[in-house]
């Protein structure tokens, strides 16, 4: 339905959503996830089976919901300019809440690292712990993440200009760099001489880098969906909210890494 | 009197119809207004920026990655060379804040962290629950 036809019977540009089960499904599965995760962390019998089931439920509800949003935006024409603006504000608010989440993680780290407790010998890193060399894999990973910022800008601006090939090449390169980053983080985790159970140092390190890695994986999925939608001609030069959301999210993950690199890897070692 | 009034009433309608014909625009006709102008400007601007970031992606990214890769490779080898001269894991001091176990992990044998590596992580069997 084009906007011209729409304006014949709708006096406003907003999307009046049709009834959908996904908000309720998502809410219930999120409640399940939080409850079963808390229970299993307190040694509730078979709690982790419930946690994994809830996680599958959350991911499925989200996938079905986003599938519907893609249909509404791409094929039903419900995403008018006003609706796109609203979606953008939603993405920005989501990223702000994520920033505050990472603020809490950094708070935990600085709380432990800036005034190390007597139990840690009053020093950071504590004796007997060999931190990761920040100029080894972490530096390479910094270069990879910054490079992915360049390639995604190439892809995005090519799409705006109407250059399909450039949009595809730029986004493919970004997704590949994202996967390489995750592989290197996996290698680093595997050869790390300290673990998550090595006191405040191990806990804060894996708390911060682990949640960052988790966000990198989500960002990779976000950009992969956008890549598929460029490939499938869903996105146009002036209407590509999904890709822009993914790019914004990716830059956010990139910035969090820079803070992690400076604070946890470099200063904290 | 009557035709006069009718004429008076009809006049604005006729003029409106005339005006509509003159002002008629097809949806496909690109006319110059601020919205169209801005969108065209964005599109033209994107040509130059896409080219700039294409060049950065092609000519700055690979060398930077190769340099950082060589550096990481050298430091990696240095690290393992240094590691080979350290005493075996069981002879190193284990401070009270290391290898903390308060309850079993929900995976594996319950005693190993998620990214456990036998070569670099000391398995303290006394702490196994």
TrEMBL record, chain A:
It is found in: Mitochondrion inner membrane. One of its GO terms (cellular component) is respiratory chain complex IV. Gene3D superfamilies: 1.10.287.70, Cytochrome c oxidase, subunit III, four-helix bundle. PROSITE patterns: COX3 (PS50253). It is a multi-pass membrane protein. Its main location: mitochondrion. One of its GO terms (molecular function) is cytochrome-c oxidase activity. CDD domains: Cyt_c_Oxidase_III. The chain crosses the membrane at residues 47-66, 87-110, 137-155, 167-187, 199-228, 248-268. Pfam families: COX3. Component of the cytochrome c oxidase, the last enzyme in the mitochondrial electron transport chain which drives oxidative phosphorylation. The respiratory chain contains 3 multisubunit complexes succinate dehydrogenase (complex II, CII), ubiquinol-cytochrome c oxidoreductase (cytochrome b-c1 complex, complex III, CIII) and cytochrome c oxidase (complex IV, CIV), that cooperate to transfer electrons derived from NADH and succinate to molecular oxygen, creating an electrochemical gradient over the inner membrane that drives transmembrane transport and the ATP synthase. Belongs to the cytochrome c oxidase subunit 3 family. This is Cytochrome c oxidase subunit 3.
From TrEMBL, chain B:
It holds the Pfam family COX6A. GO terms for cellular component: mitochondrial inner membrane. InterPro entries: Cyt_c_oxidase_su6a (IPR001349), Cyt_c_oxidase_su6a_sf (IPR036418). Gene3D superfamilies: Cytochrome c oxidase, subunit VIa. Pathway: Energy metabolism; oxidative phosphorylation. Keywords: Membrane, Mitochondrion, Mitochondrion inner membrane, Transit peptide, Transmembrane, Transmembrane helix. GO terms for biological process: mitochondrial electron transport, cytochrome c to oxygen. It comes from Chaetomium thermophilum (strain DSM 1495 / CBS 144.50 / IMI 039719). Belongs to the cytochrome c oxidase subunit 6A family. One of its GO terms (molecular function) is enzyme regulator activity. The keyword Transit peptide applies. It is a single-pass membrane protein. This is Cytochrome c oxidase subunit 13, mitochondrial. Its main location: mitochondrion.
